[in-house]
Amino acid sequence: MRPNYAARRLMAALIAIAVIGGCVWLVNLATSPSRNGSSGSAGHHGRQATEPIGTGHTTTSGTSPTTVPVGAGAPVLRNLAVTMTELQLVDTSRALVSNGVVLAPDRSLPTYVWTPVAAGRYPLVVFVHGYDRSPLQYQRFCSTLASSGYVVAAPSFPLEDPSRGNGLNRADLPNEAVDVSYVITSMEADASANRLEPSSIGVVGHSDGADVALEVGYEQGTADHRVLAVVADAPDPVTSPLVPSTAPLLLIQGTADSVVPYSSSQAVFSQLPGPTYYVSLLGADHLPPIAGGTPWTPVLDTSVAEFLDATVAGRGPGTSVLAAQLGSSPLVRLATKG
Known about the structure:
Helix content: 25-40%
Mean pLDDT: 84
Low-confidence stretches: 4-42, 44-66
Radius of gyration: 19 Å
Shape: globular
Structural class: alpha/beta
Number of strands: 13
């Protein structure tokens, strides 16, 4: 969870008030430091098998086809069997720095990768964890998303994951955006690249990770043109200049979020000019929907899978019916634009 950054939240609130005044709700169904846009050098990486905490190596059950159909109208994939491995990624081109102090000569990014068991190529989704969290605390979500036919890579960020022992520093978020690009490059170069559908990449983030996802998708200096679509769950308002982009955005937040003001996602909806689907989880808090075990959890899981199916994987009925799909639950309110 994030700390209470009073000054930052005040600024966010002012931004939200300014932009919400002009916000038009279109659909209601339910009826940072200097930024470096480089993806980094090749660095060092290796693969090590691992098992999820508290589970076996196979994180979900199910059967998978031997081939993966793609393209408009291809069937969606659900409940596929999934395995998890760990990549030891190290970006040797950038030092780890916090508050002006060099903590390490490089940026170590242990990355957990969930992959469908069946042979075939699948789109890559990079998942960005939140503040004071680790990737494995989002294991339920990542394995569920992978079971819908995606290779999900979740790096551990050295100044956001408390288990890393470096302390926590939210000022590192722009560097995490560059980390995401480095992970994409590393995944494409790794031996597992033959499991990836070429040029099919999405980014999903929660809380601070949602801020990073927006940076990777849309912000000047960190935007990565390889990313086809972005999912941002409970982000802060954008405070940096935007680049021209047509990458679709799925914006999600609980209306009873106790960590990030709900007005923050309202502000983001107004700020991003491209195609945007804004799913408000009615009555939901900050972490429980994505952590699991709530009425909103299957709604969130399904919304993310349907959005990525339509915008990245090219499966299912496509974007023409995406709004109807996303707004079909009585637990959500949907707004769209673009």
